[in-house]
């Protein structure tokens, strides 16, 4: 391995290849790869061995362990590529959302206005709880911390506000 790493000896690499390639291929086949895939993975692994030979550290692993680890990682990468489906450009999920119909936009505008009106009709402490919970997207515990109110009070005010909102918004939209 030293000759491959330091001298870039092709003869030493050929000996290394002749010794380990059949063993790595057998390991890959036993691990579930078919013969063609195993041969391809051996080629890729041995190419990495050639390119990264100088990074091999005998203190961390033996040559065999290092090479088999490279092959195993190549097999894992290949498996991940195979199990990840390719994107179908005709997939309806990838199509952009159609523009909303004009009457849907009007309906959404009316609903938004009804919500704004309903919030304005709420007592200020309930309206503030709704703003913090829904517009600032704060959790109940964060609202309690920010306002200095007990968590139970925050939950009660939100429950009351939402109940009143349902009635007010339903009335406005009828």
Automatic annotation (TrEMBL):
Domain of life: Bacteria
All residue ranges annotated as the RNA polymerase sigma-70 region domain in the record: 16-83
Matching CDD domains: Sigma70_r4
Keywords: Sigma factor, Transcription, Transcription regulation
GO biological process: DNA-templated transcription initiation
InterPro entries: RNA_pol_sigma-70-like, RNA_pol_sigma-70_dom, RNA_pol_sigma70_r2, RNA_pol_sigma70_r4_t2, RNA_pol_sigma_r2, RNA_pol_sigma_r3/r4-like, WH-like_DNA-bd_sf
Disordered, as annotated region: 81-109
Keyword presence, Transcription regulation: yes
Matches recorded under Pfam families: Sigma70_r2, Sigma70_r4_2
UniProt entry tagged with the keyword Signal: no
GO molecular function: DNA binding; sigma factor activity
Domain (RNA polymerase sigma factor 70 region 4 type) ranges: 113-164
NCBIfam families from the UniProt entry: sigma70-ECF
Record-stated family: Belongs to the sigma-70 factor family. ECF subfamily.
Protein name: Sigma-70 family RNA polymerase sigma factor
């Amino acid at each position: 391995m030293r000759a491959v790493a330091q001298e870039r000896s092709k003869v030493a690499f050929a000996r290394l290849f002749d010794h380990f390639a059949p063993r790595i291929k057998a390991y890959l086949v036993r691990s579930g790869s078919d013969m063609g895939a195993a041969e391809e993975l051996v080629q890729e692994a041995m190419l990495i061995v050639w390119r990264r030979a100088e990074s091999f550290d005998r203190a961390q692993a033996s040559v065999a362990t290092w090479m088999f680890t490279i092959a195993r990682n190549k097999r894992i990468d290949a498996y991940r590529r195979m199990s990840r489906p390719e994107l179908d450009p005709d997939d309806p999920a990838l199509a952009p959302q159609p523009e909303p119909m004009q009457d849907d936009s009007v309906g959404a505008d009316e609903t938004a206005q009804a919500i704004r009106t309903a919030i304005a009709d709420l007592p200020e402490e309930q309206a503030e709880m709704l703003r913090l919970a829904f517009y600032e997207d704060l959790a109940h515990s964060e609202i309690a911390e920010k306002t200095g109110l007990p968590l139970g009070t925050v939950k009660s005010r939100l429950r009351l506000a939402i109940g009143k909102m349902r009635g007010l918004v339903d009335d406005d939209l009828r």
